[in-house]
Write a structure and sequence with these properties.
The complex is a heterodimer.
Chain A lengths: L3 H17 L15 E5 L6 E4 L4 H10 L2 E7 L1 E3 L12 E4 L1 E6 L8 E6 L5 E3 L13 E6 L2 H20 L6 E5 L4 E6 L9 H12 L5 H4 L8 E4 L5 H12 L4 E3 L2 E5 H11 L5 H5 L4 E3 L4 E2 L4 E2 L1 E3 L13 E9 L3 E6 L2 E5 L5 E4 H10 L2 E5 L3 E3 L7
Antiparallel strand pairs in A: 1-2, 1-3, 3-15, 4-5, 6-11, 7-8, 7-9, 10-11, 10-18, 12-14, 13-14, 16-17, 19-22, 19-23, 19-24, 20-21
Helix pairs in contact in A: 1-2, 6-7
Chain B lengths: L15 H8 L5 H4 L5 H14 L11 H18 L2 H19 L4 H10 L4 E3 L5 E7 L2 E6 L2 E4 H7 L15 E3 L2 E4 L3 H20 L8 H13 L2 H17 L9 H11 L6 H13 L4 H8 L7 H11 L14 H6 L14 H25 L1
Antiparallel strand pairs in B: 1-4, 2-3, 4-6, 5-6
The chains are: A alpha+beta, B alpha+beta.
């Protein structure tokens, strides 16, 4: 009889393998020039500097060794498998933007579970406040509204790249966990330096914007005047003010209070991780891969965001799990669950896998799991 | 408005071979580079002014002569292979151009920009920003220069310390950054510096054919202590490495600024401030810091000394300034690291590196014993 831990791992490997066998990965341009990075199921470290000449070879590898996380480099290299970054021969990189939903107010709640004494606490702790054990699990509570906010910001980035910079090949991806990635692969941006990418990140986030330079306040009343044909950031703020009914007509011109302009600027900021955008050798998740933090699929999203976490699950059906903690009414991807240590329960597959990947449950039975067809939301 | 280009200010866009053929039939750049000839003497005089930190000045020579003198200077700097001198010459000529650019009309500015390979258009319906009301009517800042955003990012890179040059403070639409007559000439100046450096790099020079004027140029450089400055720098470096200051332990941001100082590059005000504060904080004295600044194109010992002493807390309020925090360095575009160094201030990184270096020395001797 195998031990429960290995049984759990065996089930996860089997489910991940079955999913990857359906061939749902999105092929990045020039796969042979990309560095591939993986963390395999059951391993705690990443394997970097891998390279595959084709998707067929990559599938062969991941079906034999199902990955918990699967990445490819935003960069194109002469020799993607070279261990030394300088020896890889950098050709260029896609432009990346990363939005994390836990940056929003009210979207960063956590429950800390102690797997030693079984108690749980609101907030994040490195040690159990009760027994002092370091065997603790931080469980994030992010409702789908937070994901919607992040999606709206991702769409804002896409529009700025399109309208202001004239870029075309832009895709928005749900990261599979709690954020979005915006990837642009137009030829024009491939050779941008790290410093130039930082300036673009600042343009998007509006960090460094000097309102008095772009929206000079005039007269003693401190008003900002707009013309009917505005461009760039002035156009966005103009439209936002119009939408909020804060513009006043003045002949052929429009005016708004400077303070309202300042508030509008705040509303139009997009909180992105500048470091990700600046990093020209960043690894990013494969579209269609499973995010090992959640068990949800990294999915390209278009004009409309699916309505729930369940839509990003690669599996249908149910699994039987055995919780390792006690908790009544635990929110799990839009569901509420009552967990009792050691008492098996049958749950939807994506819910069970989520808890198993978070370390709060072990998978006991996967007989009623079905693999979904490849998901396309854009 | 007509395009009128005064090549006295913009010799870098002139076709020197055509000019020589037309004005001095049968002559070549080599024959005109006679150190005793009119143009050779003018070239050497300009070179002397440049290395002494003076502006190029307006000589009595014609535009054609100024153009040939410019190309002779480029040939000399190429033959000498001195990166610091190349930068100094490029910056001096771009500053010279800027003085004229500021007063040029829009079509002329666009024509010059196109001649140096910038992707630029004149906007038909340019963005206008109302800035004040005069007699009930708004007055606008107009932004007629539409520069492709990649060119803008490239040429504004060194200016990001000043908010008005950052792309976040520009109007950007469909791939083009719209600029006004205040910002565009400054960006063009940066582009010209880069263009001249490239011109020197691509120049094919047979040094032996220009040996007379090159010898004269060396003589001028020697008299102006050009090489002495370099020798002092090497001595100081030796002292730093063996004494207190460990250049190898510098955080990447400060190493980058030091490298630029040594190459004689024109640094932003923020870069100068933060490196001075950093060096003063780690114990370098005023004379040593001054020695490093002697290479910058607009070096003025009196002003530089005053500023260094002020930042080091030896003057005025006697407050010793801190270098910028890592966060500020990042926002000013002075941090070359994609992630972070795991500290909040470059001083912390330096101290940590010093400690690690000491520790490594200790452990490595221990390892040797085991072997």
């Amino acid at each position: 009889m195998s031990r429960p831990v290995s049984s759990n791992l065996r089930h996860l490997k089997s489910l991940f393998r079955q999913y990857y066998s359906t061939g749902c990965l999105e092929e990045p341009a020039y796969i042979h020039k990309r560095e591939i990075g993986v963390q395999l199921l059951g391993e705690t470290t990443y394997r970097r500097h891998l390279s595959f000449p084709s998707m067929t070879m990559l599938y062969k590898f991941i079906i034999e060794n199902p990955p918990l996380h699967l990445y490819y480099s935003s960069a194109y290299y002469d020799d993607p498998s070279a261990k030394d970054m300088g020896a890889k021969g950098w050709h260029g990189s896609d432009l990346l933007f990363d939005i994390d939903a836990d940056h929003y107010q009210g979207c960063n709640s956590t429950i800390t579970f102690c797997t030693r004494c079984g108690k749980s606490f609101e907030g994040t702790y490195k040690q159990c406040p009760s027994c002092g054990s370091t065997n603790v699990i931080a469980y994030p509570l992010i409702n789908f509204d937070c994901i919607k906010r992040a999606y709206n910001d991702a769409i804002k980035i896409k529009l700025v790249l399109k309208d202001d910079f004239g870029l075309k090949n832009i895709k928005v991806y749900f990261s599979g966990n709690r954020g979005f990635h915006v990837k642009c692969s137009d030829d024009e941006i491939l050779d941008l330096t790290s410093d130039e990418r930082r300036e673009l990140a600042m343009y998007i986030s509006l960090n460094g914007l000097e309102p008095a330079l772009v929206f000079p306040p005039i007269t003693k009343r401190k008003i900002v005047i707009f013309v009917s044909q505005e461009y760039g950031i002035r156009k966005r703020i103009f439209m936002d003010l119009d939408h909020k009914d804060l513009l006043r007509r003045r002949g052929v011109l429009y005016e708004a209070d400077y303070d309202d302009v300042l508030y509008s600027i705040e509303d139009n900021r997009v909180d992105i991780d500048t470091v990700v955008t600046m990093d020209i050798s960043r690894l990013s998740r494969f579209g269609g891969s499973i995010n090992g933090k959640s068990g949800l699929v990294v999915s390209s999203v278009g004009e409309q965001l699916p309505s729930s976490y369940a839509d990003f699950s690669p599996w249908d059906g149910t699994v039987v799990i055995k919780p390792v903690v006690d908790f009544s009414g635990l929110p799990v991807l839009g569901n509420k669950l009552n967990l009792k240590t050691g008492i098996p329960i049958r749950v939807k597959t994506y819910v069970g896998i989520y808890l198993a990947l978070k370390g709060l449950a072990k998978i006991e039975n996967v007989e009623r799991v079905e693999i979904r067809k490849c998901m396309m939301y854009s | 408005m007509a395009v009128i280009i005064d090549y006295t200010y913009y010799p870098f866009i002139a076709d020197v071979n055509s000019i020589i053929e037309y004005r001095w039939p049968g002559a070549t750049l080599v024959t005109l580079a006679d150190p005793n000839g009119i143009i050779g003497r003018r070239a050497l005089r300009i070179l002397e002014r440049i290395i002494k930190g003076k502006d190029i000045g307006r000589g009595q020579r014609t535009a054609e002569e100024e153009i040939v003198a410019y190309y002779i200077i480029l040939a000399i700097t190429k033959a000498l292979g001195d990166r610091r001198l190349i930068n100094r010459v490029a910056i001096a000529y771009s500053k010279h151009a800027y003085e004229k650019l500021r007063h040029e009309n829009i079509p002329t500015l666009i024509a010059i920009a196109k001649r140096i390979g910038i992707n630029i258009l004149q906007a038909k319906n340019p963005p206008r920003i109302p800035v004040k009301i005069i007699h009930g009517s708004p007055a606008f800042i107009v932004k007629p220069f539409a520069m492709y955003f990649k060119d803008y990012l490239k040429f504004s890179a060194r200016l990001t310390g000043e908010p008005k040059y950052r792309i976040v403070n520009q109007i950007v639409h469909r791939g083009y950054v719209y600029l006004d007559k205040d910002v565009f000439p400054r960006i063009l100046e940066e582009a010209i510096t880069s263009y001249i450096v490239n011109q020197v790099n691509e120049l094919q020079v047979r040094s032996e054919e220009l040996s007379h004027i090159i010898d004269k140029a060396r003589e001028i450089l020697g008299k102006a202590n050009w090489y002495q400055v370099r020798a002092v720098r090497h001595t100081q470096q030796g002292v730093f490495e063996t004494d207190i200051i460990d250049f190898n332990a510098f955080p990447p941001c400060m190493s980058k600024i030091i490298e630029a100082l040594r190459a004689g590059e024109n640094l932003s005000h923020q870069a100068r401030f933060t490196i001075t504060a950093f060096l003063a904080r780690i114990g370098m004295d005023v004379e040593e810091i001054l020695g490093l600044f002697k290479n910058v194109p607009d070096f003025n010992e009196k002003i530089a000394r005053y500023q260094i002493e002020h930042i080091a807390g030896l003057r005025g309020s006697r407050k010793q300034y801190m270098p910028y925090s890592c966060q500020t360095m990042k926002s000013l575009g002075l941090c070359p690291v994609a992630g972070d160094c795991g500290a909040k201030n470059p001083l912390v990184v330096y101290r940590r590196n010093i400690l690690r270096s000491k520790y490594r020395k200790g452990t490595s001797s221990g390892k040797n014993k085991n072997d």
